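Protocol step 4 of 6: structure prediction from sequence.
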Amino acid sequence: MNSQLSHITRRALLQKTSALALTPAVAPLGLGLMGMANAAAQTATDYKALVYVFMHGGNDCYNTVVPFDTNNYNQYFSKRQGEASGNYSGIALLRQALTPTVLGTQGLPSGQQMALNPTMTGLKQVFDAGRASILLNVGLMKVPTSLAQFQSRSVPLPLHMFSHTQASQWHRGGFSTGWGGQMADLFLQENPTASLSVINVGGPADFLVGNGVRGYRTTPAGPAAVSASTSLFGSVGCAQALSTLMRQPSSHLMGDLYTAATRAAMDLRQSVVDKIGTSVPTKFTTWFPAASGGNLAAQLQMVARLIEQGPAFDMKRQVFVVGVGGFDHHDGLNNRHPGLIGSVSTALQQFDAAMVGLNMAQSVTTFTGSDFGRKLTSNGNGTDHGWGGHQFVLGGAVRGGRFLGKAPVIGTGHALDVGGGALLPTTATEQLNVELGRWFGVSDADLGAIFPNSKHFDLGKLGIFKT
């Protein structure tokens, strides 16, 4: 037997295998059985869930959270103005179009105002209700960095600056595993159905890959079948025969492990289907009106249905990830961005309504991410890759209705401009992630291991959560 396996008993391997979050569409042995470590366990008596919403492509933060006070709006307008069309001059939103989505000023410097994109009325409602905040100018950093240090490359910088491969650093923080999965690892002993500790409904899978867990995958319509076990080339009979074969015990250790993992995946799928049902309950169609929030709303509806059943599975901690693409707007910004960011706003508002309706708002925190922000300057009818950007944090435990972090200077040629109004971040992703982790119940020692660069930053100062 392989020397790595020689000290591991069959019973121990089966226990480890059953704790894996099986991805239904893949072979169980493709799960990295030897990649598991024994993390320091965390205890939890209540229920909490983190929901990560990722906007693939690099969201244009300037046309999402828009300067509204006269001085800053004029700077924004001067860099984006052009031919007038509808609510736009060039790619600059007209100030009068922003009036319905002007936000409160708590957390902003005196005299400064901001508004949301006109299509984001849903998220404005949640902000005004005190269950959403805006984190300003957050981005990937390894250490606090000045403009001079960036320009001279005299400090460690994130890998692949201004590249879409930075997205993986949002999910993994530079590791081979994701920080959502690493946090879930710490609570495995608290979750009787360990495979449901991390659930992917359409987002970046690497966020959920821990040492002891892998992302359980479901679709907005429900859990996918395991290895054609419900239909094989259109034949239910053939699928049933295959399912029987896949459940057969084996005299070989690894064959038996394969069978055990496959059987566990099939049983888990059926258990999830039994709990959430095969049709959407009326209350969820009320909270999530069909099509109004697009595919992201459909993903979040499934998340809400699974969160509702958390107590039925006796879960204490869960991590979910969802995602929406299409935000790489080098061109066509005016045509595509309003609808996309509007659908994100609507989906988040609907999910908030569901959490309030389920009396789960205090127990669930939702946060957004994106590859990077974008430049302030126009390239004609779009914007190019930037660095820092604005993100949203939602939930009943959030100190809502306020701006968090440091409001950026609007314009070019200032101390945070790395080129064309692309922002040098004033808040590191580690600062956001550590506060999320503390709320989730992860110890500072474990957070230091998950986010080793966090030791370089001033932690706990964002004040995301109510005390």
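Step 5 (inspection) to follow. The two ends are 54 Å apart (CA to CA).
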